[in-house]
Design a protein that fits this description.
The complex is a heterodimer of chains A (446) and B (995).
Chain A lengths: L13 H9 L7 H27 L14 H25 L9 H15 L1 H5 L26 H34 L2 H10 L7 H34 L11 H27 L8 H32 L2 H12 L3 H13 L7 H4 L2 H28 L14 H24 L5 H7 L9
Chain B lengths: L3 H5 L4 H19 L23 E6 L8 E7 L2 E7 L12 H10 L9 E2 L7 E2 L2 H13 L4 E5 L4 H13 L3 E5 L6 H11 L3 E5 L6 E5 L10 H10 L11 E5 L5 H5 L2 E3 L6 H16 L5 H8 L3 H5 L6 H13 L3 E5 L9 H14 L7 E5 L7 H14 L6 E5 L3 H4 L6 H6 L4 E5 L4 H5 L2 E4 L8 E6 L2 E5 L12 H12 L9 H13 L4 H11 L1 E2 L5 H13 L7 H8 L7 E5 L13 H5 L7 E2 L4 E3 L1 H6 L7 E6 L3 E8 L7 E5 L32 E9 L7 E2 L14 E3 H10 L37 E6 L8 H10 L6 H5 L8 E6 L8 E7 L9 H4 L5 E3 L5 E3 L9 H5 L6 E2 L26 E2 L5 H13 L12 H5 L5 E5 L6 H6 L4 E2 L3 H4 L5 E4 L1 E3 L6
Classes of the chains: A mainly alpha (446), B alpha/beta (995).
Chain lengths: 446, 995
């Protein structure tokens, strides 16, 4: 008997599920090592660049007066954005019982955790005095120094650290039954590792009951964070009075943009993964169609937000705002603006067509284009606004430096390094939840 | 002790300090010989030196011939800051950018530190002063003349030289200063008789017409002129606003500040002056001076104006404006003297002034004893004689002059000097001339030596050493005395130059009670008791009576020659370059030129038409070739020069002189022709073409359009006067009514959503009068000096990383305005009551105090730079790197101000260290700080008193009155409710007079 007649449910047995998914933990091949070595090289480049920046001063970066935030904050917002869709998929869609999340939520969650871990580095990297980063934490001290709770940067500290904590907890709780399954098959060091990390999971009914309840609670707990984190990040800009930043549309606009870019990143990661690990059975075109539809939807929200900014600039009759929004499409830096519009608004329109939604090649290309577009979006917001503020005598330009490029490359290396390690050590597709939707095993006759 | 509490508490602070002092004393007295580093500097503290408390010494500025009085702030034996002397009759407290920067000449890391000598083609070797003077003396004893080339001297050192020259007939004295406008003096002598000099009072002139004279920048006595001029720019009575016209081929700072700039062709000044004289006479009917009538009778205005670039109607209305004004002033100099003929121009200006009745009203004539004004002429004669082999001197001594740098390229100085067997250079640093010398005698800076001067009859400046010499150096006076005694000159034998000066002052002011008087003179920095306007007026009237007949052949001759149609290379001095002796001062290299905002280098201004005719584009490096030489520099395309002119500032292109100067820019003197009578600053360009080169024009401001944002505002004088009648300017806004963001005058406080800051006792505020701000940038340099602002270098300025807390910004005028540039505006931290920077700092590194100051706590800053992004005025500067200064430039650092570290934000503090100092004094005296008691560095140096600072809660304070001015406005406040503490007063456009 089929337990579910649903496109999400692959027609395989429990054994087959274990077989297929735990095969991802087999000793890595040449391809994995090549990827891992590339990621490590990226980390080395980033590390070297950061070392140089600490040694010589933050001036090695291209940021300058009046553009004092640049690539680092762009990277920060970018990675926080990437981190977004993981929680959306795992928690929000869980509560909504959307079946298509089952096959992708694990990898999306892993992506979230590592993206937040990457994003969290940037506020420290961009500091003038990075050794003093902990001054942003409200810790009691003899000098009665306290932090300024009015500053959006401080809200950031809380928002991002809360998000990291909750998503790590949610992620590890979901992993427990799967690790136990891996433990039962593992030998040697892995056996010890999985025994410890599975926290004595035996699969008893009692454990399952508690597990399901806990998972539900965490999903509920994580859901508001999906909205809060990127809203708070957007306040870094919206709470200031810089023309082009000071706008109330930012929180929803940033959240939609984050989901948009996060889903694109999920596609970028899972398409090669399903191919390499032969998971086509579990990640079907149906899943990708669902993701494509969500991408199309968020793309249109983003498109709407872009348009409304222009409308409000005109409607406000605020000369500074108007100049800024004239400057973005027609000024000196028109290229990143039109690049953003093309990647985020025009290319995703192809997803109206089923042919595009079901073409893995196009989806892979599109997902990368979207992430380029979303990176450019943050870059435009940050540096275009800062380069044309109130006093024309203080307008200025910004030149990318090798250190910023190196650290950006390093952040990708850092992210993929963790992701690659994760894929080889833990099941990237949830055994537990897949088993919930596949055909039940026949009762044994004993 | 009855106070039980005190006993209980154990050690009091006082006791603790006593013990600490005693321990330190013991350590110092030898009980702990193993730790000599712990010795306390003042075991017996000199009475006048208190660690942590500054002493102030009067001195005078020796940067140019104006003779401004200064006071030197000394902390723990080191000079740290210069200010203008408020009591001095010339500068009245103002000090220009160059004057401010002279501290860095004193602490120049490349100064010569001991006497050096070398045989031909061998490296320099140090020697003792005794040997050095011996060598110098024996060289002068050789057969042949010895030439002593100095700057124009006055005071005791002039007398010393005169006595030396009188005693030793083989020693000849020549004065040389390329930057000096000797034409003024020559013209005064030819009209009013030998020894005559003129001075001007700009505060009395209703209309000023300047033919090329940059009286607000470099011409004769800029601080004095700026101060006088400014009184007529921000007048109490509106009818008093003056009207100034600048006639010159390029838009200088003076021309920007004029009401009208008339762009003439270079070399046409003399003809224009003749045409003006003729027109004035035809308006007037009868000439006061028959000679003037005779001079122009045979000339036709049309012919004179032919090719000058000035229309007849322009000249006619200028003449009309001048004749209808009660008092006016016509001057010429600067670019009028660029070509030969500067003297004749100056003569004509004086004749015009006579016809306009300005003598003894705005032009004063007086007699001086220092007559011989052959100056530069005799130096060039010597060069020619050397070149022709007519003269073989025994030795040439260059004292505090650098002819190798400033002599025009047309001279082959290298060859000429090679004929001199012995050359000595008395100089501060290893400049181009010293490099050639056999003997280099290091001179003490003016901060290390006694000196006096007589910039004008009746004004005797006295300068005392503010600190011990840094190195083994001596003053010029002491060197001459030592030389004299070696040569056995009785007249100048004196134990020291100090004694010599004293004897001079004693003989001038009399024996009796001299000691008491002397102390007073030293304290106040000189003696100007006999100087006064009444005296000047009387002298001028007397001179007017004794007016001479001028030799007019020169004028007539030049009137016939036609104005050149060729491309002219015009070089000019700027507020940052002088004649090149500021090039090794990092402040002056990094100070943006007010018009181009260029730093660290040279550039050539070129008209767009000329540029396109030669197919050149912005920033191209060009090769300029003249008869005399070649130079390479980047171009700046601007319509602020005449079509047939390329203009270039002088002062850069040093080959030696020090680490900051050498290799920067190009030397404009290289392409200048032979000078006959006076220094020539222009040349005919043979070819200008694109060259291969990397030199880059680095500017600090790139955008000059305001887009109606009302940042820099102008108000028409007629409009102001009208509104003044009504007086009920302060109109209430109705609820919901849109206010005009460009409205001037005090505005209603908008309805605030949140509780506002309160200020119980003080609220420090500033007002900046744009009507009198000339853009001279003295405030910028003063701020660098006071606040230890790092200099970052050309490469980092190109990246936008300059650290200046004040920027002088300017905007182009809208179409149809008379001046192409609307004005200058110092932009610094506005200390907003509602500061956007404050709430965004996550660690409270910036916050508002209850005195209205927006503070910056460097130690707490982690460097998120959010405050900088959120600052609407963009005045926060970030330390992108750790900037280091070489010794001894570090000695100049103000001990009251933190030197900032890498990664922290900084900005204007309203000189909080000065506020605190005054508050401490006031507290000791049990009172509040009085108005005018605290002056930030920018306000105190401002030559035009454009900046006013004080407590705005005090309704009697000057700053409060300015804040209520009908011209007042706060930048961006109407848009973003930042509530700045700085009120800008709109510039006044004089629309009542039109030329």
């Amino acid at each position: 008997m089929k337990r579910l007649d649903h496109p999400a449910a692959p027609s395989v047995s429990y054994e087959q599920v274990d077989e297929d998914i735990l095969a991802t933990l087999n000793p890595p091949g040449f391809g994995w090592f090549m990827l891992f070595a590339t990621a490590l090289c990226g980390v080395a480049v980033g590390g070297f660049s950061w070392y140089q920046q600490i040694k010589n001063g933050i001036g090695l970066a291209g940021i300058t007066h009046p553009i004092m935030w640049g690539v680092y904050i762009t990277d920060f917002v970018f990675w926080v954005g990437i981190a977004h869709s993981g929680t959306l998929i795992s928690a929000v869609l869980y509560l909504f019982r959307a079946k298509w999340r089952i096959a992708i939520y694990r990898i999306a969650e892993a992506m979230t955790v590592f993206a937040v871990a990457t994003a969290g580095l940037f506020p420290i990297i961009h500091l003038g005095r990075p050794a003093n980063f902990y001054w942003l934490l409200p810790y009691p001290n003899q000098r009665y120094l306290w932090v300024n709770f009015r500053s959006p940067l401080l809200w950031d500290v809380f928002a991002v650290s809360t998000y990291l904590t909750v998503s790590v907890l949610f992620f590890t709780i979901g992993l427990i039954p799967d690790i136990a399954a891996a433990r039962d098959r593992a030998k040697g060091v892995r056996k010890i590792l999985y025994s410890v990390t599975s926290l004595g999971w035996t699969g008893s009914s009692n454990q399952w009951r508690h597990y399901a309840a806990a998972y539900g609670f965490f999903a509920a707990l994580a859901t508001p964070l999906v909205l809060s984190v990127h809203s708070v990040v957007s306040w870094d800009f919206a709470m200031s009075i810089v023309p082009g930043w000071h706008t109330t549309i930012f929180p929803p606009y940033f959240v939609a943009g984050a989901i948009f870019s996060g889903l694109a990143m999920v596609i970028t990661i899972t398409i090669p993964m399903r191919k390499a690990f032969k998971l086509e059975k579990y990640l079907t075109t149906w899943h990708y169609e669902k993701m494509s539809q969500l991408i199309l939807f968020t793309s249109m929200i983003v498109f709407y937000a872009y348009s409304i900014e222009f409308f409000i600039a005109w409607y406000s009759n605020n000369t500074f705002e108007q100049y800024q929004f004239w400057f973005r499409p027609f000024g000196e830096y028109w290229l990143p603006f039109w690049g953003m519009v093309t990647c985020n608004c025009i290319f995703p329109q192809t997803l109206w067509f089923k042919k595009c939604r079901t073409s893995f090649t196009w989806l892979f290309i599109l997902s990368i284009l979207i992430n380029i577009g979303m990176w450019l979006e943050r870059f435009n917001i940050i540096f275009q606004s800062l380069s044309r503020e109130y006093d024309p005598a203080a307008w200025g330009a910004y030149n990318f430096s090798w250190v910023e490029a190196g650290i950006t490359v390093g952040s990708f290396g850092w992210f993929f390094m963790f992701l690659l390690v994760f894929i080889k050590f833990f099941p990237s597709v949830s055994l537990t939840e897949i088993k919930e939707i596949v055909e039940l095993p026949k009762e044994s006759k004993a | 002790m009855s106070d039980g509490k005190k006993i209980k508490s154990g050690y009091s602070r006082r006791d603790f300090l006593k013990v600490l002092g005693a321990t330190g004393g013991l350590a110092a007295s030898g009980c702990a010989p193993e730790i000599p580093e712990k010795i306390i500097p003042y075991v017996v503290q000199p009475e006048e030196i208190v660690p942590g408390v500054a002493s102030w010494y009067s001195a005078s500025c020796s940067e140019c011939s104006a003779g401004c009085g200064t006071v030197v702030r000394v902390r723990e034996g080191r000079a740290v800051k210069l200010e203008g002397n408020k009591n001095h009759p010339i500068n009245k407290g103002g000090l220009c950018a160059i004057g401010q920067s002279s501290l860095q000449a004193h602490y120049d890391p490349d100064r010569v530190r001991e006497p050096l000598f070398r045989e031909i083609k061998t490296p320099f070797k140090p020697l003792s002063w005794e040997e050095a003077v011996k060598k110098l003396a024996s060289a002068t004893k050789e057969s042949g003349n010895t030439y002593l080339v100095t700057k124009p001297l006055s005071g005791s050192v002039a007398r010393l030289v005169r006595e030396l020259v009188e005693a030793k007939s083989n020693i000849k004295h020549i004065e040389f200063d390329s930057s000096l406008d000797v034409d003024q003096d020559l013209a005064a002598e030819s009209i009013f008789g030998s020894g005559s000099r003129v001075s001007y009072d700009f505060s009395k002139a209703d209309v000023v017409a300047s033919f090329g004279a940059d009286y607000l920048e470099t011409w004769v006595s800029p601080v004095e002129f700026s101060k006088a001029w400014s009184q007529r720019r921000k007048p109490s009575k509106l009818g008093d606003v003056n009207y100034t016209v600048s006639i010159q081929p390029r838009l200088s700072l003076t021309a920007v500040n004029a009401n009208k700039w008339i762009k003439n062709k270079p070399g046409s000044e003399l003809k224009l002056l003749l045409a003006l004289l003729k027109t004035i006479l035809s308006h007037k009917g009868k000439a006061d001076n028959a000679q003037s009538q005779e001079l122009v009778s045979s000339l036709s205005v049309d012919e004179l104006l032919n090719g000058s670039g000035v229309s007849k109607s322009e000249l006619d209305s200028l003449a009309k404006t001048l004749t209808s004004a009660k008092n006016s002033l016509v001057i010429s100099g600067g670019s009028s003297s660029s070509f030969a003929g500067g003297k004749e121009c100056a003569e004509l200006s004086l004749l015009i002034n006579q016809e306009l009745g300005n003598i003894s009203k705005t032009v004063f004539v007086f007699k001086t004893l220092n007559s011989s004004k052959e100056s530069n002429k005799s130096f060039y004669k010597l060069l020619e004689a050397l070149d022709a082999g007519k003269e073989t001197p025994a030795a040439v001594i260059f004292a505090d002059v650098n002819p190798v740098f400033v002599v025009p390229g047309a001279y082959n100085l290298e060859k000429s000097l090679a004929r001199v067997p012995f050359m000595a250079s008395i100089s501060l640093s290893m400049d181009e001339t010293a490099k050639y010398a056999n003997l280099v005698l290091p001179m003490s800076s003016s901060l290390e030596s006694w000196g006096d001067s007589e910039p004008r009859p009746g004004i005797y400046n006295l300068s005392q050493p503010a600190m011990q010499p840094l190195y083994k150096t001596q003053s010029l006076g002491d060197i001459l005395i030592a030389l004299g005694s070696r040569l056995g000159v009785e007249a100048i034998s004196s134990p020291s130059f100090y004694e010599y000066i004293r004897s001079q002052w004693k003989s001038r002011t009399g024996e009796s009670g001299f000691e008491r008087r002397w102390i007073k003179f030293v304290e106040q920095g000189g003696d100007w008791s006999s100087y006064g306007v009444k005296n000047l007026e009387a002298q001028s009237k007397k001179s007017l009576a004794g007016i001479k007949k001028v030799k007019t052949e020169g004028i007539k001759e030049r009137a016939k020659s036609s104005v050149t149609k060729d491309l002219v290379f015009l070089s000019y001095a700027t507020i940052k370059s002088a004649n090149g002796n500021t090039a090794n001062r990092p402040w002056m290299q990094e100070l943006p030129d007010p018009l181009t905002t260029a730093v660290w280098g040279s550039w050539i201004d070129i008209h767009p038409e000329t540029a396109s005719a030669n197919s050149l584009s912005q920033g191209n490096v060009v090769r300029v070739r003249t008869e005399s030489g070649v130079l390479h520099a980047p171009i700046n395309i601007t319509s602020n020069v005449a079509e047939n002119v390329v203009a270039m500032p002088i002062g850069q292109g040093h080959e030696a002189f020090g680490r900051y100067a050498s290799g920067i820019g190009a030397n404009a003197f290289e392409v200048l022709p032979v000078s006959k009578d006076s220094q020539v600053f222009a040349s005919i360009v043979k070819k200008i073409e694109r060259a291969v080169g990397k030199d880059e024009l680095v500017t600090t401001q790139q955008f000059f359009e305001q887009f109606d944002r009302g940042i820099l505002r102008t108000v028409a004088a007629s409009k102001l006067a009208k509104e003044k009648h009504g007086h009920a300017k302060h109109k209430k806004h109705k609820e919901g009514e849109h206010h005009d963001p460009l409205a001037l005058g005090p505005q209603d406080e908008p309805k605030q959503m949140y509780k506002q800051m309160t200020h119980p006792l003080y609220r420090w505020a500033m007002s900046i009068d744009l009507a009198s701000c000339t853009g001279c940038s003295a405030c910028v340099v003063a701020c660098y000096a006071e606040n230890n602002i790092p200099v970052v270098g050309k490469e980092l300025v190109a990246q936008g990383r300059e650290m200046s807390w004040i920027r002088i910004q300017h905007f182009n005028s809208q179409q149809g305005k008379e001046s192409p540039i609307e004005g200058f505006m110092p932009m610094l931290c506005q200390h907003c009551n509602n500061a956007p920077c404050e709430p965004v700092c996550p660690v409270y590194a910036t916050y508002h105090n209850e005195e209205g100051i927006n503070h910056m706590v460097y130690n707490r800053c982690v460097g998120t730079r959010y405050c900088g992004n959120n600052c609407s005025y963009k005045v926060r500067r970030f330390n992108w790197f750790q900037y280091k200064l070489p010794e001894p430039l570090t000695w100049q650092l103000n001990p009251d101000v933190t030197v900032r570290a890498l990664g922290v934000m900084e900005k204007c503090t309203f000189c909080v260290q000065r506020i605190r100092e005054s508050q401490h004094i006031a507290k000791d005296e049990g009172r509040v700080v009085k108005d005018g008691e605290v002056q930030p560095a920018c306000a105190s140096t401002c030559p035009t008193d454009a900046i006013t600072f004080g407590n705005i809660l005090d309704k009697k304070s000057a700053v409060y009155k300015n804040s209520q001015s009908e011209r007042g406005y706060k930048v961006l406040d109407a848009h973003i409710n930042t509530q700045p503490a700085i009120t800008y007063l709109a510039k006044i456009e004089n629309d009542k007079v039109r030329v």
